[in-house]
Amino acid sequence: xxxxxxxxxxxxxxxxxxxxxxxxxxxxxxxxxxxxxxxxxxxxxxxxxxxxxxxxxxxxxxxxxxxxxxxxxxxxxxxxxxxxxxxxxxxxxxxxxxxxxxxxxxxxxxxxxxxxxxxxxxxxxxxxxxxxxxxx
Length: 136
Known about the structure:
Radius of gyration: 17 Å
Structural class: alpha/beta
Largest sheet: 4 strands, mixed
Number of domains: 2
Strand content: 35-45%
Strand order of the largest sheet: 1-4-3-2
CATH topology of the largest domain: 2,3-Dihydroxybiphenyl 1,2-Dioxygenase, domain 1
Number of helices: 2
Distance between the termini: 32 Å
CATH architecture of the largest domain: Roll
Number of strands: 8
């Protein structure tokens, strides 16, 4: 099988499962400025988000659904998703004032690149990455 060309693949969405879809959506809206999109699917309410040009779909989880609890960070598999930001230190200060939990404080990992990690509901790990244009 031939390898796919990069031009044939594009990101479509990230899918998050939670026992509190409304709380998850509100967290992303309040903390990161996500746009909440509400609709109906199969006669049930659906909540999607738009964040940084990407789609985030939120799936409700109820007791008895057979869904495992959120793992403790770090874990194998999808570890986190990253968001490119500008002015990471100011953004970190704003997020801290809103009560966001940091699992890694802003730090320079190499010249021109500063990162930090925050924890969203259900143990979702998000990296914020501020890359100087000189190092892109």
